[in-house]
Amino acid sequence: MIQLNKVSKQFRTGVFALSDISFTVGKGEFVFLIGPTGSGKTTIFRLLTREAFPTTGEIVVDNWDVVKLPTSKIPHLRKKIGVVFQDLKLLMDRTIFENIILPLEVSGINSVNAKKIVEETMERLGIAVHKDKFPIQLSGGELQRVAIARALVLSPDILLADEPTGNLDQATAFEIVKLLSEINKKGTTVIMATHNNDILKAISKRIISLDKGFLVRDDGKKKEKCEAEHSDKKLKAN
Amino acid sequence: MKVFRTTWCNIRRSPYQAFAAVFVMTLTFLFISFFTFLLFGSSKAISYFESRPQVTAFFRQEVKQEDIDSLKDNLMTTNKIADIKFVSKQDALKIYTEQNKDDPLLLELVTADILPASLEISTIKIADLSEINNMLSGSPLVSEVVFQKDVVSVLTSWTNALRGIGLGLIITLSLVSVFIMVIIIGIKIAQKKQDIEIMRLIGAGGWYIRWPIVFEGIFYGVVGAILGFGIASGALWYATPFLSSFLKGIPIFPIPVIFLLGLLGFEILIAMILGIFSSLVAVLRYLK
To answer: In chain A, which residue's Cα lies nearest the Cα of B197?
Structure first.
């Protein structure tokens, strides 16, 4: 479903955001992407949605070569992947309903069907009562749900959630993770970036860990193998 | 349709910018409408003067009909005459009576005997008027020659000058409108940059974002054209009684409805082209 093969990303300043990252995420998997701030989690999400280009390496999403994808196909790729952005990226001058319906409008789905899908999704996420409110009128947890709802309305095969529990209290954070788990159980591949250790301890899922752009742990591979690879790469980098 | 709703929403959310764009377009089309009316009127006036006898030769009282016929034949042999009409003393009296029918005192004083017979002549080319004028002036039968060449040529040169100045001003105003529209639409794009970025990230294609901007440009252009045309037509309608009496005899008014509708259609078309062009320039400039 998702494959990164020897992906590196170097910024114009010369700093490496990612160094030689390789991992595969299968269909229907739930993966935690962890690491401290600046470790490269968001960069991976940006590469997967073609917001940015890798300096080297291959990225395949659902048999699509993301790096070689023509510009005209990018909207199609982005419709396949639902993203819950770290800063949510909600339109502040639109109501909650208008925010959630936006991906459906963009995809040209007729308004009757679109309204039905949005109402069902809002109901499922428990935000139906906020339909006509504006983002500024909602709490952090409610806004996260709105962002998740917007990412889900197109029934994407993949859901990328970038620190969806970042600014939330523990109880709300667990509610959000529970919600993502339920979405995953219905067949959606979920990659959630986080650095909340409590969540990682409580929920047993595959963890991919990054540090300063290096892959330091992948439960999909043997831990020792990862660490050995990491040491080799660091030596080469130095 | 969704795209029209989005366009209308964008316009409504920044009313002052929308007003500025419509205002500059109105000004441009107001000028285009006035200028077109002026050209229409002056070309009508030129046709009127061109269709009138361009040289009128008045005969002496004692001249006989055979002599007049002979002079008429001489003129026809030049092959430069488009039309020649003999006006007898009786015909002259009829014309005089018609022109002064409201003034019985003037009618009482004049009889056919004191009015001269005349020949009203139009040439094929205006350039030949001088030669015909010379022929008639040199004839002993003719007492006076009235020559309208100057009226037509002055009017023609004024119209040509007017056309040149007007076209120059229209092009300048259209360019100014396009620049102002590009700036206004550009500001709006810049204000919505974050929204546009979000839309792109959730899968919006290029034209999903561009169409409302293009329609916005068309809206400003078309509303400006309709307002400009409306104001100019209203002013013309208001001034028609005064202009009709001022230009007595020259059949300019009323301006045909079909001409007005044609002008409105043409202005709307130009407005759409200007609107689309401005929007696309703004999109290329600010929406990379």
So the answer is: A89
